[in-house]
Amino acid sequence: MNKITMRDAFFERLYQVAKVNGNVLVVSADMGAPALDKFRQDLGNQFINVGIAEQNMVTLSTGLALGGKKVFMYAIMPFVTARCFEMIKVDLSLMNIPVTAVGVGAGFGYEDSGPTHHSTEDIAIMRSLPNMTILSPSDIVMAAEFAEMACGITGPSYVRLDRQVLPVLYNDGQDFSQGFTVLKPGKDICIIGTGYMVHRALEVAGDLSRYSIDAGVIDLYRLKPIDLEGLLGAITGPKALVTVEEHLLNGGLGSIMAETLADCGKQIPLKRIGIEDRYYYAYGRDHIHSLCKLDKDGLVRTILDWIKNQPNAFSDHQSQPAIKV
Fold first, then answer.
1. Cβ neighbours, 10 Å, residue 55
2. What pLDDT does 1 receive?
């Protein structure tokens, strides 16, 4: 069973890369991690702690990158995205500088710290920036691979890491270059998730089978740029799509899919499930999920209710037993 977080898997792999490549640097905004101890101890010239000065961290990282360094700047997710937005826009996005922003605590990952530390708008913020690549791993295997992949990205990039220890979904050596993986095929609906919610999507797909609904699951882990041709091919079979995200509905994963379908003229029913237009002053990730109906039972009920109102989408359903909702 996995006992380490994405963050530690990411920085452990980055440490291995940095031992060989002295141009790889980590710049931290007063954030620690067990895996970062190795940087401080063994690679002291490749680790900089700027203190609680995230905006300055971006400017410093930009200068280092212009000097030939490959920089990874690290902080709690809201502080490396929202707090630094203008600096990332002007210093990195505008000039297409290859610095990687690494944020920890996707969604309600900092469940004990309230809305100031929740990261429920980071996708919308970062995907608005030209030249930006966004990587959203769902397990430690992928997180480790992204540490190496990010070294080869020629523009700015953003890696969003979950804080929680999660089950492993992939085998070592998996190729993640396409940007998504079909984890489970399905003939009726396809549930698309990213990060933490991929695990929830698999649970929901299992529950939906009890209602004679064959639900597939896609892990969309490169949120920008999207492999349009590949993704459209992967969603051709199912009768309808559902996106599940631990993010505000405005500008998140559901928006990505809605825009993709509209821009490509693809007509298929889409249900976006995420956080409504509000913040949650509550504690405990599971508790917050139950409040916003992102828990397994809430998602299953929302999907079943939606399917009831989509009779035309399933009118030609012949290969499976009639859907019973």
1. 17
2. 58
Q: Report the candidate in 232, 222, 200, 228 with the shortest Cα–Cα distance to residue 302.
A: 200
CA distances from 41 to 7, 20, 44, 57, 298 (A): 18, 16, 6, 21, 47
Range of the domain at 192: 180-314
Given a cut of 50, whether residue 161 has pLDDT beyond it is yes
Look up the pTM and report it. Answer: 0.94
Residues 235-261 have a mean pLDDT of 97
Phi, psi of 44 (to 5 degrees): -60, -30
Residues 38 and 89 in one domain: yes
Q: What tokens were used for 324?
A: 């019973």
Q: Which residues pair with 103 in a beta bridge?
A: 75, 160
State the total domains in the chain.
Answer: 2
Residue 322 lies in a domain: no
Domain end: 126, 161, 196, which one?
A: 161
